[in-house]
Amino acid sequence: MNTTEPIIMIVDDDERNTRLLKAQLEAEGYGTMAALSGQECLSQLRERLPDLILLDIMMPGLSGFEVAGRLKADSRTKNIPIIMITALEDRDSKIKALYLGAEEFLNKPVDRAELQIRVRNLLRLKEYQNFLAEYNRRLEAQVAERTADLWKSYRETIYIMTSAAEYKDEDTGAHVQRVSHYTRDLARTLGQDAAFCDHIFYASPMHDVGKIAIPDHVLLKPGTLTPDEWAIMKSHSDFGARILESGDSPYLEMARAIALGHHERWDGSGYPGGLKGESIPLPARIMAVCDVYDALRSRRPYKPAFSHERALAIITEGDDRTQPGHFDPAVHGAFADRAGEMSRIYAEIQD
Questions:
Q1: Domains of the chain
Q2: Please, what's the b/e burial string for 9-45 (b: 16 or more CB within 10 A of its CB; e: otherwise)?
């Protein structure tokens, strides 16, 4: 709790009242501030905040009502307790002061014992409120720190799983880094929020984690796959989804959707589920065009690397394996608009 002496501000246009209250409060061990007008009070509070304010109602210029209203409307001063000091006896004045946020009243002439009790009680309340505020601040800081640690552990999990997939295929190291940037850029272009863009950046590298389960003689075969081998290769989508299904972080949930659906096609001709249109999750639709682009640009056991121009032409115009109708039209359009950025990312991130 607070061990420094509380500071009490006295606001009264009558200097005699101010001196009397100041003497009484300082005799009780309190520090004091004084202002002879409402405007002077507000000016002093810009530099220093007291723990409690004794505020006269009847003052020339800004009345005590006006000062109290401004103090309670200001986030810096709204939690400072106010005791209104008044010679008024009417009920309406007290109700108005309470409505404006004053905590207590004292009638003139101020009784010293009553002043001591009211001040002591409000300062105890203020001290407890300060304690709760500090406790909540520390609690929020701890929660934020633990949340940051949790996100860090999620990302470490992603890194470990992605590294395991890379171990199986030496050509995928830079590929998984690039798809992070491709997918995040397209997500932003499509107007997705910051959380979606963050999640897809970390989730997309796990799109082929299921290749861990594919035998090397199939995964690394330099020639054309037989129908049986192709069936084995396609199973990596299901394997990836199974590997990721036990995770409950938003990263792993999105990664599962991408792993399972990034070979689905808008026209329904993809695998493993033959999903069509918007039944394919958006992260997988974004990943689909990014994966094709990077595969076309990269050397693989079964093909050389293609230029950006050739890869772009295949995606936008089609060839014997890839057609524009394979992709979500909105994602396809965003990719065409951002083709220059895709090329820059590919050139910048290399093994």
A1: 7-139 (3.40.50.2300), 169-348 (1.10.3210.10)
A2: bbbbbeeebbebbbebbeeeebebbbbbbbeebbebb
